[in-house]
Amino acid sequence: MLLVQKYGGSSVGSPERIRAVAKRVANARRRGHDLVVVVSAMGDTTDDLTTLASLVTGRERPQDEHPREMDMLLTAGERIAAALLTMAIREQGFEARSFTGSQAAIITDTNHTAARIREVKAGRVREALDDGCIAIVAGFQGVSTEREITTLGRGGSDTTAVALAAALKADACEIYTDVDGVYTADPRRVPGARVIRTLTHAEMMEMAANGAQVMHGRAVDIGDRFGVDIRVLSSFVDDDAADEGAPRGTLITHRTQAMEELVLTGVAPKGGQAKLVLRGLAPGMRTQTVLLEALAENGVSVDMVNESFGGDGRMQIQLTVPEEAASRAEEVLRAALEPLGGGEIAAQTGLSRIALVGNGMTGRPGVYAKAYRALLDAGVEVQGVSTSSISITVLVPAERETEAVQALHGAFRLEQTGAADGVAER
Amino acid sequence: MLLVQKYGGSSVGSPERIRAVAKRVANARRRGHDLVVVVSAMGDTTDDLTTLASLVTGRERPQDEHPREMDMLLTAGERIAAALLTMAIREQGFEARSFTGSQAAIITDTNHTAARIREVKAGRVREALDDGCIAIVAGFQGVSTEREITTLGRGGSDTTAVALAAALKADACEIYTDVDGVYTADPRRVPGARVIRTLTHAEMMEMAANGAQVMHGRAVDIGDRFGVDIRVLSSFVDDDAADEGAPRGTLITHRTQAMEELVLTGVAPKGGQAKLVLRGLAPGMRTQTVLLEALAENGVSVDMVNESFGGDGRMQIQLTVPEEAASRAEEVLRAALEPLGGGEIAAQTGLSRIALVGNGMTGRPGVYAKAYRALLDAGVEVQGVSTSSISITVLVPAERETEAVQALHGAFRLEQTGAADGVAER
Question: Are A215 and A176 in contact, with CB atoms under 8 Å apart?
Fold first, then answer.
């Protein structure tokens, strides 16, 4: 079986942790697996290097002015971790070889600091596997079509791992992190929160888009498109139980045979939201288009757009933006509204969005009602709502976020095993 | 004019130092020069990374067990420094691009941790120069003929700089360090020691081989073979005087038109030596060959070999080895002597070798005599001597090293300007 494993920064945060990871890799090798291991930079390395760049340049965000050089700088972090982990694995008595993103031929576009993967060639990784070696690949990095060193931006190492698993047609992709898996809700805030045993890629993307930090939606998207099963699990627990059929973290998979049984997977809150309500607008597609274009041109990302019509035939638009972009967005919209015939704008900050995620939600009666009832009983006022095929997202005051999450978690009985699993247990 | 500049680890040891180097580079650019800048890892980075590797592997010398991975690890240091320096130069308003050893196409053999340069292609460095960019190259590193990342070992960044200067046919190569240039002797120990204004490559190699740390002989050797003039100077002094004809560091050059006038360039001591005297040996080439082969096979490097014959027709061999290898060498020699008919071995540790370096020494009467007279007057007993065309090396007790250096420095009046310059002032 060909396994791609990825270890995050906290998993390799110290020499001792690196040795622990090496033992885990060696154990998987002893079980007979071929292995490709993707590794992030140790602990705070990336932050430390960014600070160094700030001190050298006198800029708070050196990446804005020096994107190419920031990529050259930051990729050193994963290179260091890859080399050290390779040594530690060799000390376990197994042959291993480290590769940079360039050497692994992770080909990206030329968009420094946030490059997108175009193609994964991985010729030397395949050679290493053919030679019976464990291949260690520096995460988060690639080489552009212009032969420049690039980084993949947020979720980069997860993305490297899943893309490699897709390219190598690996049997599984394991994402090791510092938590036990993907939770139904944040366990620090919701006492009954549980690890989700199985969910679909779409559900995971919805969870990630709504603030679940454990895995980046971008990597899940690649897994979705190439049919890569992804297992999220902790590198901090002993892995001796691995062969004994004990539950191990969260499996993200396409195999959704028992979907109809089930409703909700998890509850994911995301704070720092603002709501803008535009009233008295000239109706018609042109208004919305011009307004959304104005926001896009000014770098404001928009979420949860609703439109409605008042009794006077004028249009109303409601949208959410990140809180820190609220005043900028208001300014941009005001300017854009003028040639459109004007309108009022009201802004409200201090909001959180809470997503209820679950495949099979569409067309299922009572989900909406149950959610609203739970929030009403908890005294949480809903400030807005939007839906997708696999989620309902409500906007609530940020100070009521925890009560809202707990209320929803309880109402859908997510604390009970089985209720939260998007697919049947295997 | 195309200039290659190299900055050592202490020259880029902090964000402030990097900014200072960037200003120096920018000044050279303002003077109209095209520039390639080679940079070492910041301050203690290489030591810190080696310590990390020791902690991960539990080995004192991880490079012995994991040479490929140590190269992957350590090259991150120069990559970081190159990226940061490039940002700092860009902040000065000049276009700059950093390159790793691979990107600069410094092609080496496959000998990890101590690779030799086979060829410098530097295609992307040329492109950058053609685009009007300052090219920053990570020193100490290359890419092997097997596409592996390699390091050049000791003196690696100097070697990168001189090799690039040779490949690009640069007009000059400047090595910036934390001292003012190459001294006639260590100024901390010899009060009259002066910066040598000019010397030949051969003289510099002799100085370096005898412990002058400021520049590695290997880089000088490349400069010698490709006719690259090398200037050694301090990055810690203001460079405003640069265009005013003031003396600037030490120039290492082939232009030796006034050679016959001059005798001695400098005095370089090197401690930690041991002397082995083998007596009563069967005479003949075979004895020496077998003994030297035995030492080589056991990794003992030998220096200053002398042979002589006693009245009984038996041969005597005297050789020096690094002090820490003395007991191992004695053991190896004892075993090797047995099938050769035996012999006695006497070892003496606690010695230093002191080289008097100067082109034009050969055939010049009185140099030897003057050196011995100076040492005799200072009460330093000479334990051995060897010569080359441009040096005399004496072996003295380590505790008398400073007196010996001072005595020789004084006897040859190296404290006087002009006396120590291997070529005419320009």
Answer: no
Dihedral of CA atoms A417, A418, A422, A426 in degrees, nearest 10, equals 110
Q: Compare all CA atoms of chain A with the CA of B124 and give the residue at the minimum distance.
A: A147
d(CA B55, CA A16): 8
Q: How far is CA A146 from CA A27, A74, A109, in A?
A: 39, 19, 8
Residue B76: list chain A partners with CB under 8 A. Answer: 76-77, 79-80, 83
CA B100 to chain centre: 23
User: Where along chain B do the CATH 3.40.1160.10 domains lie?
Assistant: 2-256
- DSSP 3-state percent helix, strand, coil across chain B (nearest 5): 40, 25, 35
Of A18, A77, A79, nearest to B56 by CB-CB distance is A18
Query: Strand pairing of A2-7 and A149-151?
Result: unpaired
Which of A155, A174, A186 lies closest to A235, judged by CA? A174
Instruction: From chain A, pick out residues whose CB is under 8 angstroms from the CB of B87.
Output: 53, 56-57, 62, 65-66, 69-70, 73
Contact B68 A97 (CB under 8 A): yes
Q: Do A79 and B72 touch (CB under 8 A)?
A: yes
Rounded Cα distance between B237 and A381, Å, is: 68
Q: Do B87 and A58 touch (CB under 8 A)?
A: no
Which CATH number applies to A2-256? 3.40.1160.10
Residues B318-335 have pLDDT tens digits of 888 999 999 999 999 999
Q: Rounded to a whole number, what is the largest CA-CA distance in chain A? A: 78
> Across residues B225-240, what is the average pLDDT?
85
Token readout for A408 is: 């929803």
Q: What is the pLDDT of residue B244?
A: 47
Rg (CA), chain A: 23
pLDDT band at A175 (very low <50, low <70, confident <90, very high): very high
CA atoms within 13 A on the CB side of A3: 22
The token pair at B199 is 């010397």
* CATH no., domain B266-410: 3.30.2130.10
Q: b/e map of B364-379 (b: 16 or more CB within 10 Å)? A: eeebeebbbebbeebe
pLDDT average, residue stretch A291-300: 83
Cβ separation of A76 and B76 shorter than 8 Å?
A: yes
